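Ticket #4471: structure output looks truncated?

Reporter: J.K.
Steps to reproduce: submitted the chain below (965 residues) through the standard prediction queue, then opened the result file.
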Amino acid sequence: MQAQFLSVISDQVYNWQKENLPENSLFILHDGPPYANADVHVGHAVNRIIKDMIIRYQVMQGRRVSYIPGWDCHGLPIELKVLESLEHGKKAWQLTPVEIRKLARQHAENTITKQMSSFKEWGTMGEWDNPYKTMTDPDYEIRQLEVFRSMVNTGVIYRRFRPVYWSCQSHTALAEAELEYAPQHRSTAVYVKFPLLTPDELVRLVKEQSDVNICGKPVHVLVWTTTPWTVPANQAIVVNPDMTYQVVSSDRHGVLVLAESRAESVSDDLGPLRVLAGSIPGSALTSFGYTHPLHSNPVSQSILAADFVTSDAGTGLVHCAPGHGMEDYLVCQKYGIEPCSPVNEFGEYDATVPAGLEVLIGKSVFKDGQSTVLKLLAEVDALAGVNSGYQHKYPYDWRSKKPVIIRATAQWFADLGSIKDKAVMSLDNVDFLPETGKHRLQSFTRERTEWCISRQRAWGVPIPALYDATTGDALLTDTSIEYIINEIKKVGIDTWFAEEDDITHWIAPEYREEGKSYVKGNDTMDVWFDSGTSWTLIQEKYGSLREKAKNLVDVYIEGSDQHRGWFQSSLLTYTATHRNGKAPFGTVVTHGFTLDGKGRKMSKSLGNVIAPGAITWEKFKIDKVMMQPIGVSGLRLWVAQNDYTTDISVSVESFKRVQDSLSKLRRTFKYILGNFNPTPYFTYERDVPYGELGPIDQHALYGLYELEKSVKAHYDNFAFNRVVQAVNKNVAELSASYFQLIKSRLYTDHPSSLSRRTALTVLAHIFRTYASVLSPIIPLLTQEAWHHAPCCVTGQNEDVFSPFVAGWYETPEEWNNEKLRDDFLQLSQIRDAVNDGLEIARKSGNIGTSLDAGVVLSTEPSTSAFELLQIYSKLTTVAEAHLSEYFVTSEVNVLTTSADSDATTACRWSVPKELTILGSRMKTTVVSPSRHKCPRCWHWNAKKESEVCAECAETVKSMHDSKAP
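Returned output as attached by the reporter:
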């Protein structure tokens, strides 16, 4: 049965809406592709179920939806995983790129199959038979290459030898989005002395200010760095031109130059410093030169000026290695200093180290290489101080969880400076939930100047560049790229990675006659470029339908980390290739991460993830507490009840709330449907008109009206937790009030009586409303209920096989009876006072249930309170006994204050209470009933003991007569 309903709510509903809902109402939720690398965890469930609730609500609103699931298939983690899995056969280094790609593709396919199975088990719908993948689908890779080609043609793409983040474990460049920052990383921080050249001006200043002659004495500029392994690549020292510096003398380290604002802190580390001369502007120091203490053939190097030098730490002079620092590179470019980066892809010093430092070759910059640098500095008295446990924030590779280095290599970049302003401006017309997402995405986009899009791996989409075999110059023109793309269409993308003796077929005819020899490039594109161009799928499929739409896609929704990832890469690639001033998305929704009981983000690396399958089908443990499985509906309800805009705690309490809520909802549907079981006397075929319903029934419908309107607003704002809160509140009110009040009508009145049919009418409306408002969240439960509901309950014919086909149940405006609402606010206060009296009577042993009592209500005549009571006690409709039904007592008498004592004196017992209603004093008196208890309905309305009351007698007679042949 579960599988039957899963098929209905997923495949059948999705296909039905594609064929039957209007094309011009199309709503597109574009899937941010999960990575095809591992089993699913509860974070996947949060993401997928939120998306499913969004599109299901749109179907309920009569809109055709498009949801094409996708998978991100390329990249380093998959490649590393398949290489690590190699056993006794070929070693990783023996595999060709084509062999690596074959293994990686198979791994990704296997993962997709498993992940898709889980996603479908959660009752999510979409085009599961036609998902998109960033691999294997040649159309996807061709579209991606076309985006790259377009960006080349607009001058956005270029190649440069410059520093990039580099993973020594993975041997590839990384983009900013592939980093995470460890706040408690420990580095070795050192003070290094660099000899200053021709300090004649300093000699004069010292002589004038302190009468000390330092002529002939060595003078050093003092720098501080947390990356001493970069000192061999030093090419400049940078000062702040607006800061002031001083010359100081140290008994241990001689004459030094440093910033005045840093002198006190430096003296704490290096010992007492005596000021020899001060107030030297940083701009004056740029006229001096210095030498490198470790170079065997030292030459004069420059002191440069830059405003990124601050007085927050260090000495106010920054060691500058443009091959190993972003800011270093930029400032050196201004002065024509090309970067030196004597470190290979493994993070080891290579043969390009400066003369005299050959001892470093082959040593790791993080280990023996750095310790050797420190030893060499100490040997030439250039090492002034060492702190081996300096704690600070440092970038890590988010995959290997290892610290990265910055290393200059030849890479392909996208120039974001030319497009980011346009991208940021386009966000003004995008809605964000939460709103802070807009600032985050704007901020992250503004901060970037370029995007390193090349990677040194085999598993990915190639950068279609050819290189001159002699000069290494790249051939990347529109003509060449177009030709290569067409060749890939014919021979397949793997062929690019194959070893070939003759690559002529990759060279456009225009370039074959130049007499040059070319080789294919080995770089692949950043996976963020892969997934970031997924909008091309939507543009190709629905472009003509979306020309007049606000944006190409209605909604993007992913985790909050995607402001640096998929949201941004989609925005940048779209903006770079379009001139319409729009972003690819109209609304961006972000959700938080799932946290364990200790408040830690759930992740595979920490081993604290929970498989959704364990939650739905098996007993599972949270914080050492064994929990019962909650099923698919429970999992979906758990996702919905959380405020996903913040991090979500996977806690015992949250799952207990789900179990309680789901149980109440299931009981509510069972209660409603149980009252529609057919009997020989049952003639309910249509709803009783609103005007014929009693006040209790109309008041219940007012509650439904409020529920439907508020829930619709919450869905429109993607606030699913508020939907759950509103439904839970209404369920509690119905269970505690309306369902209790109509029991007598349902169980004792004639099955075909107007009084019972009014109650059934309201129950049918409750069913339709609940089926409507709950279907986006727990479609499996609502579909099951719909399956068992007769047409008179659903209000639809048998062809309407699902609540999604029926559509949103919009409550009529006539239910919005504010006068009735206000009246019941007053009546509820009276009922509270009556309940207090009933509880006292129960504790004193006078009654067992509330039906064992009557109520006398008394107030002054000609008051608003008296008029209210008169209205609701003298009704001649089916709610004639409205107040007694509302209080669940056998009788209610409304009297003036003067007649009250006469009515209560004759009672065997009474419990009076006083309150103020509508500005008037009122007394409620719970009293002993004046008649006998009816053995059928339990009301004390019988004239004689052990006899049924008149109403029951009439009902029994009518039922008996209707059975007569």
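Triage note (M.O.): checked the attachment and the full token line is present. The first strand starts at residue 27 and ends at 30.
Status: closed, working as intended.
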